[in-house]
Amino acid sequence: MHGNLLDSNVLIKLIRREQRIENIFLGWHAQGTELFISVATRTEIIAGMHPIEEERTLRLLNSLVSLSVDDNIADQAGRWIYLYRRQGIQLALADTIIAATAWAHGLTLVTSNAKHFPMENVNVLAVNY
Predict the structure, then answer these.
(1) Superfamily of domain 4-126 in the CATH hierarchy
(2) pLDDT above 90 for 1
(3) In sequence order, what DSSP letters do the residues of 29-40 get, joined into one string?
(4) Residue 52 reports pLDDT greater than 80
(5) Residue 6: HSE in the Cβ half-sphere, 13 Å Cα cutoff
(6) CA distance 95 to 35
(7) Helix/strand/coil for 83
(8) What's the rounded Cα separation, in Å, for the pair 61 and 66?
(9) Looking at the whole model, is its pTM more than 0.70?
(10) Integer Cα distance of 4 and 92 in angstroms
(11) How far, CA to CA in Å, does 45 sit from each of 7, 8, 14, 110, 115?
(12) CB atoms within 10 A of CB 121
């Protein structure tokens, strides 16, 4: 599978209509880049959405392909949490599931918080502002 897996912070910027990320998003569409989200991202977005943003948020989420968590993804996320904790690095469960989803599907993880994804075998594209 080829394409981009969008992190929650990128979706929030799209929902809030931040021009720079909207331009990047439109560029991906023009290039035919497939866009995906993890179900963990969907959960984070729904949990934090403002009522006034609900329609726009659901329209955006429903326009993307949601990828489920399977045993392979769950196991890899657990391995990373264990490995990095032993190094004194605390990873968030949702972030490790998102990273493991990108890893399992061979997708580029697009985020504005690259430091949340130190895993060497995950292709991360940092879109910083």
Answers:
(1) 5'-nuclease (3.40.50.1010)
(2) no
(3) HHHT--EEEEHH
(4) yes
(5) 27
(6) 18
(7) helix
(8) 8
(9) yes
(10) 21
(11) 10, 6, 11, 15, 20
(12) 9
Tokens encoding 9: 């912070």
The residue type at 16: R
Note the pLDDT tens digit of each residue in 58-99.
Answer: 999 999 999 999 999 999 999 999 999 999 999 999 999 999
Q: Which residue carries 């569409």 as its tokens?
A: 29
Beta-carbon contacts of residue 45 (< 8 Å; ≥ 6 apart): 8, 11, 12, 15, 57, 61
In angstroms, the CA 123 to CA 48 distance is: 26
In the chain, where the domains are located: 4-126
Partners of 111 in beta bridges: 126
pLDDT in tens, 105-125: 999 999 999 999 999 899 999
Task: List the structure tokens of 19.
Answer: 């021009």
For residue 107, the 8-state DSSP code is P
d(CA 39, CA 59): 15
What is the torsional sign of CA 82, 85, 86, 89? positive
Alpha helices per DSSP H over 1-107: 8-15, 19-31, 39-48, 54-63, 71-86, 93-105
> What are residue 36's DSSP bridge partners?
5, 65
